[in-house]
Amino acid sequence: HHADIMYRHGHFALFDISTNGTVVVDRNKEIKRLHREELVLSGNGMICFGGTPETDPEAVVYYQCT
Hints:
Blueprint: E1 3-8, E2 11-16, E3 22-26, E4 31-34, E5 38-41, E6 44-49, E7 60-64
């Protein structure tokens, strides 16, 4: 179990609960590295569990919040 995504208070939030962390790349290509913390997701982008999209493309999940 690496992370949770929950819908609360009208927003989707990603909670990293892993040892290696989670990387979120938003639509503006801004990179956010999470380690046992929370990030509210908006727009669209990529979530990569344990590394970056370049180093581990098979661990990428694309998201879109509408």
